[in-house]
Amino acid sequence: PIDRKAAGSAIREMLRRAKAATAGGRSIMIMPEGTRVAPGRTGRYNPGVAALYTALGLPVVPVALNSGLFWGRRSLVIRPGTVTLEFLAPLRPGMDRKVFMALLQERIETASERLRLEVQGETGARSL
User: Fold this and answer.
1) Measured in Å, how far apart are the chain's first and last C-alpha atoms?
2) Cβ atoms 112, 45 nearer than 8 A
3) N or C: which end of the chain has fewer CB within 10 A?
């Protein structure tokens, strides 16, 4: 968890904990936007994911999903449907930070939009 009010100290703490976790062989999952975003919309990708990428020197596996179609942001209502989670090609370590962030966002958003359109094409569902 990240203390969003702590700014720089939150990133330092996140890096410390991430280094300890990966040294112990554990994987890390991070939501680059910091929160769920409504289907079809793109939030701001936060610098924490780039900080982890740069500091850890590990591949990043982007993930696309369509869960927002069935479980809306700030909603307790869960609609019937099948959530699809798609692991995308890993991004290898060593890229320039800006290049990494642009490629990460492009891959996630493109695949997530495809998943959203697949479901909406099948069901005629509307975004939440």
Assistant:
1) 26
2) no
3) N
| Consecutive H or E run containing 86 | strand 85-87
Residue with tokens 């936060």: 46
Q: What is the DSSP letter of 35?
A: S
**Rounded Cα–Cα distance for residues 104 and 40 (Å):** 17
Cα 125 from Cα 120, distance rounded (Å): 5
Check: CB of residue 65 under 8 Å from CB of residue 85. Answer: yes
CA distance 119 to 82: 9
Q: Which tokens belong to 74?
A: 């700030």
The count of residues in the chain is 128
CA angle 119, 121, 127 (to 5 degrees): 60
pTM exceeds cut of 0.90? no
Type of residue found at 32: P
Per-residue pLDDT of the chain (128 residues; tens, 9 = 90+): 677 677 778 888 989 999 999 999 999 998 898 888 888 888 899 888 999 999 999 999 999 999 989 988 778 888 999 999 999 999 999 999 999 999 999 999 999 999 999 987 765 555 44
